[in-house]
Every structure is written in structure tokens, then in C-alpha cells.
Amino acid sequence: MKIENKLPKEKEKVRKFYENCEARHKYVPAMMEQAEKHLIKAKHDFSRALSELDDRCWDWTVIKAYYSIFHAGNFLLLKSKGFFCKDHSCLLIALEHHDL
Hints:
2 strands, 100 residues, two-stranded antiparallel ribbon
């Protein structure tokens, strides 16, 4: 099964997508203390993903692993740029746009 990624890859299209996310207020300025909360949440979700894997709960393993990555991405964005993202696609675009 192949999963298609429809997010832009070319620099100009990434920039336009990023600006669209900005216009829709998907990027939220936050205090640096919030970064640590995202990191703690990422570690917690990853730990839970491993537990679910041990229990052979495949659906929850995937969900928790995914959210671990989401929170880790927000940690990186917040730590380096001072804002986090509440939209999953916009988070990926922001990381690409800022070469993170």
C-alpha cells in the first residue's frame, strides 16, 4: 500500500503553502516554557507507543508514535522560531520552510 504525500516540495510552493497557513492563523506564538511541554509530551507519547507495541496494540502504537512526532516537531519549531503549529500539514511545511 502506497501512501501519497500531497504536500509541496518545491521551494516556491512550500513558501506559498506556509503563507497560507500563516493567513489562517495556524502558527501560534508561545513562551519558550511551552517548548518543554511539547518535549515532555513527545517523550510520554513515545513511551506509550512502545508499551502499546509490547502489548501488540498496533492501532494505538501508530497513533501514539504519530503524536510523539507531532509534539517533537512542535518542540523544534517553538525552540528555534518561537511559535508552534496547531495544524499537522502546516507543521510539516513550517519545518521545511525554515530548514528544520
